[in-house]
């Protein structure tokens, strides 16, 4: 297929992430240099199914390097379970037909582990696909990192920094809840960089006693305040066990009914644990006597301009994707590997999650700094 590719589709899927536009621009500029046409699909997989497109010429690509979000829009749709009104359909055939009509030779999908799953489904249906790793969570398997992560870590670090002065002034515990889904990278990175006194991660279930102990030790040493960086996926030992058991039930369910019941149970467990940071704040107040407050960072971590590191990474991965397409390399993700890039089969990425290994160097660093990890 090398030399023959003329029209390439591109879309952004899943949660938005700083650097998406830099990656679109990186791919687009390299693609235009090859003389290709680039067709952007709006709102992720939804635009691919509904055939909503925009031509990405050099004018459309100009001035977007520093822009946050995605100029194409995004969604979390699944191609094989695609919602149309009240109906759920398998939209794979529709996508293939749309791409044939548009004369699309390949589709570049910017997304995470879920997008890799969609990409495999599209590849099985006959499309040439390639993905780029995007997420603030840094949880995509087989890549060193993903664009969005560095920016989000900057934002979360600044938040942890700023919480220090108000916690100090009021002699309070302030818990800062940081995104990351089921991975603790963002919280661990921002927690260390921002000098959090306690860092709580999904990978290390905590006990309230241990967290309180760290705070009381600080009080004994004259620090009547503490800043706790809490990952949105962090749980105490009991909640973590309940959650894991519910997840295992879903995995073990063999019939559709059993699956439905197990998924409903998992959703209930997740729901009951949603306010976990507020619960921890109350428990710490009772255990330490210090007033506690919660600050949920939320979507501010995903918004706004990408930092230099993310612009650079997204540009490197975007241009590398154009090289891969030129060589006819499909069914893979362009991974960041050291100073370079590497093509990784999508099967090694889809549905996988890169958690923080409990013996990771960052964990070691936190322990050496006497940061409480709640264990
Ligand atoms: O994956 C990125 C992320 O921001 C996670 O950190 C968070 O759990 C999730 O997306 C939020 O998803 P949504 O945008 O659907 O609320």
Provide an overview of this structure.
- This protein is of the alpha/beta class and 375 residues long.
- It folds into two domains: 2-147 and 306-338, 3-Layer(aba) Sandwich (Rossmann fold), CATH 3.40.50; 153-235 and 273-302 and 357-368, 3-Layer(aba) Sandwich (Rossmann fold).
- 44% of the residues lie in helices and 18% in strands.
- The chain has 13 helices and 14 strands.
- It has helices at 20-33, 45-50, 58-61, 92-102, 113-124, 149-170, 185-193, 208-220, 237-252, 256-272, 276-288, 308-326, 361-368, and strands at 7-12, 37-41, 53-55, 82-84, 87-89, 106-111, 129-135, 147-148, 172-178, 198-200, 226-231, 291-296, 332-337, 340-345.
- Helix 1 (20-33) runs parallel beside helix 12 (308-326), helix 8 packs across helix 11 (276-288) and helix 9 (237-252) packs antiparallel against helix 10.
- It is globular.
- 6-O-phosphono-beta-D-fructofuranose binds next to loops.
